[in-house]
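Narrative of activities, Objective 1.

The group set out to show that a structural description can be obtained from nothing but a protein's sequence at a throughput compatible with the screening campaign. Below is one input-output pair from the validation batch, recorded exactly as produced.
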Amino acid sequence: MPQREAPTAPATRRGREAAVTDRPIAPGDVLHLTRAASPQFVKPITVRVIREVRDRHTYHGWTWIEAYELDARGDAVAKRELFVLREGLHRLAGPPRQAAPPRQAAPARGTSPTRGTNPALRQAAPAQGTSPARVR
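Output recorded for this entry:
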């Protein structure tokens, strides 16, 4: 009897996707979900996996995942729990995420955050031994 060849992964879209069946679903994976994953995805979505829920018993080939739905910029817009067919999941090569804006450095330790700033932005400190006025 001739041996059967293993099925190949579905064709990739512009080289960015790969079938998920080649390795387990891991936290942080970015997946593209279409109708191949579940009939609910008439409009495809992109998600970032939080975890695969393995303690729920499902039909063969199906699984539950917790994931964040991503917008076009790669920002999370909703947390979702999804029932999907593993063979229909497509892993994106990299997250569709733009670089975060640079953070400002924190003020040096032991210095006032207003020192060296515009005088109009400084707040007057209460005189020593007095308490700020209470508002009623």
